[in-house]
Amino acid sequence: MKTISASPRGRVPWVLLVPALLGLAFLVLPLAGLLIRTPWPTMGTRLAQPEVRDALGLSLFTATLATLVCMVCGVPLAWLLARVSFPGLRLVRALVTVPLVLPPVVGGVALLLVLGRRGLVGRWLDSAFGITLPFTTAGVVLAEAFVAMPFLVISVEGALRAADLRYEEAAATLGASRWTVFRRVTLPLVAPGIVAGGILCWARALGEFGATITFAGNFPGRTQTMPLAVYLALETDPQAAIVLSVVLLAVSVAVLAGLRDRWIS
Amino acid sequence: MSLDAHLVVRRPAFDLDLALTAAPGEVVALLGPNGAGKTTALRALAGLAPLSAGFVRLDGTDVRALPTELRPIGMVFQDYLLFPHLSAVDNVAFGLRCHGARKGAARDQARDWLSRVGLSGCEAKRPGELSGGQAQRVALARALAVRPRLLLLDEPLAALDAHTRLEVRSQLRGHLADFGGVAVLVTHDPLDAMVLADRLVVIESGRSVQEGPPAQVARHPRTDFVARLVGLNLYRGFASGHTVALDPGITLDAAESLDGPVFLTFPPAAVALFRSRPDGTPRNLWRTRISMIERHGDRIRVHLDDPLAVAADVTAAAVAELGLIEDSQVWAAVKATETHAYPA
Amino acid sequence: MKKSLLALALLPVVLAGCGSTATKGTPAPGRTLTVFAAASLTESFKALGRTFEAAHPGVKVTFNFGASSALAQQITQGAPADVFAAASPATMKTVTDAGDATAPKTFVKNRLEIAVPPANPGKIVALKDLANAKLKVVLCAPQVPCGAAAIKALGAAGLKVTPVSQEQDVKAALTKVELGEADAALVYRTDVKSAGDKVKGIDFPESLKAINAYPIAVLAKAPQAALAQEFTQLVTSAPGQQVLQQAGFEAP
Hints:
The complex is a heterotrimer. Helix content of chain A is about 75%, strand content about 0%. By secondary structure, chain A is an all-alpha fold. The termini of chain A are close together. Chain B is of the alpha+beta class. Chain B has two domains: about 5-230, P-loop containing nucleotide triphosphate hydrolases (Rossmann fold, 3-Layer(aba) Sandwich); about 230-344, CATH 2.40.50.100. Chain B is about 25% helix and about 35% strand. Chain B contains nine helices and 18 strands. Chain B has helices spanning about 40-45, 90-100, 105-115, 130-145, 160-180, 190-195, 215-220, 225-230, 315-320; strands spanning about 5-10, 15-20, 25-30, 55-60, 60, 75, 150-155, 180-185, 200-205, 205-210, 235-245, 250-265, 270-275, 285-295, 300-305, 310-315, 330-335, 340-344. Chain B has a six-stranded mixed sheet, sandwiched between helices. Chain B has a five-stranded antiparallel sheet with strand order 13-17-14-15-16. The longest helix of chain B has 17 residues, at about 160-180. Chain B is elongated. In chain C, helix 2 runs antiparallel to helix 9 and helix 3 runs parallel beside helix 4 (about 90-95). In chain C, strand 6, helix 5 (about 145-155) and strand 7 form a beta-alpha-beta unit. The longest helix of chain C has 20 residues, at about 1-20. Chains in contact: A-B, A-C. The interface of A and B includes residues 173, 177, 180, 184 and 191 of A.
């Protein structure tokens, strides 16, 4: 796994190698562009600024919470899609992927229309419980969860479909209820899929911009996540924007690489 | 614990209709070719395949409406299906936990079961670290640990190599003998069925075609499938005393004296082949053609077809001496004392 | 789609025909003037563009509307443009500092207003009402011109307002009011005007302390420098000013 080796059948064919390297360059070069333009000498002082720490902390916190929300609802949803046959299943599956194709800003507006102070559900939340979600950290979590959930659901559903159903049957013959089967057999069997989906979900939530700024607004320390801070820094101080982007990248790459080594391989 | 079941499962290209009964402590083997419906029958007993009609009565109570997890069963699957994320002892403890045992108690019992099947020391191993024979025994311990009243075994030895199989088979026989409930075993291997079962039910195309104690089924096969399995030539005929008239217009003498429709069998080793018509006038002699010659263990099996399809086992020396080649004509003879007839 | 393709195919022919009868010299057919302008200028500049095209046969005016700062960045990164009209002198300064434009000229001024939902649930009448902590007020982020102007106006009034959000641009702030999520926002008069009856504008005297000047300049590397010059003249001319003032802008 750790050593580079040729494919078992000899040399890597160039028809695969050339586009692969092109693809890699395409993905990596913009990153290199950022790193080259990073004002390294002032990096330390910029990072020490409380606004940067606030935004980074808020980003990590909300992305993690959003991932948990996605797990709690998304894994059962994936199970439903993979294991239960009901009328309209195909439509539901298509609907689940809507946040993937919806421009995030539109997603944010849609969330406002439903969960906003005058939204369909938000109106009731406000009058019955005094809860308003826009402009709050909870709103950030919701916006991130909305755009990131499909990544988790699709990944987990795929894992569930690939899993051998007969293990669940074996568990049933041992007296396990449906819930026990899910908890003690299904979940452990699809754990790699859940972790992979969770990582995708977390990464997507961390980079979320459009839905967040539209639904939760932008206020430092409360709803201003790193991508929002980057966007606004770009208005006045492109250097600061680059620094923030590099920090966000470094942290996310470190976390993802750490998780990958721990779970995927 | 007794079993009385009528299993009807209808699927587009398949139809199972099987009545199955077993007395307490009895081991019943479902024997049949691939696709006969053996595994479907087992899954229907477990509640994993829904019944289209019929019933599954355990001690007189119909459990048809019960989901799998509420049936008092244990099941050993063909490839064991040990949970890959659990150690051997946790695999065995799984069912106990589902039946309400506390974690510690379940583990203690599971350890006990592992030692009963001779796997002390393997408790912490994951299924991937177990040999085939060990995995089979963990699967058996896992199924027995929940103290089922009905034990279901789907091809329990099929995944093992020949050597391990011999050993595991005799151990399994011991465990089945100790087991107080009804055991239903699915196999396509007649030897497994003979060794392990008290009674055989032969299934072909979703129907029972023959039932009985293994020895009786082996001696008196009623279908080509069983005859082939037990290595006998089998024919239908009409008996008048010792003489049995077979379909292609041949008459053979049998050891038994019967009247009416009969089955007639003789083993391939009872057939003698001659290049030219032998001296004297032995009964049961006919001229025939060699369709195929093949190796069969340390014997040579000669297939004869026209007018009667017969398998004959001869020595390699005989093949050389007689110059037997495919598509040539020979004389075949069977001793009447080795030819058995029984009512059809 | 087919129709527009046909129109495109015929365009050179039409332009060539016009060119031969044009009175104003012999403009090369298919000349394009590219104008980068602040988003708040969208409606009025589009109208001025049509006027300009009518007066200059064969010339096509294309616009790139967006946040001034984003446009400034595109210009300093080498985007081919002839004219830049920014929503603040600070933004224009990044372009002139980079040497991409000289001698910007203020052509209009814009002033803040309080935008409230039509029903005005917060019962806001003056700027000091925004200091009420129970109200949800959104401002623009300090990094964008309308945010800077808001800070200036509030500072002049000696008010401390804690917004629930610092929006990324003036349209986003306005949207929050339109949807009723915010009780009030400080936005430009022109934005209140373009939102029609979806929001109500409340003028406040302190806005005079935070007047936003809009500078316009011909870019140093303008491919159509002459046309660019003429366009800026149109913008500052009396007819041009009339169009802009209809949209809510004030004379410089």
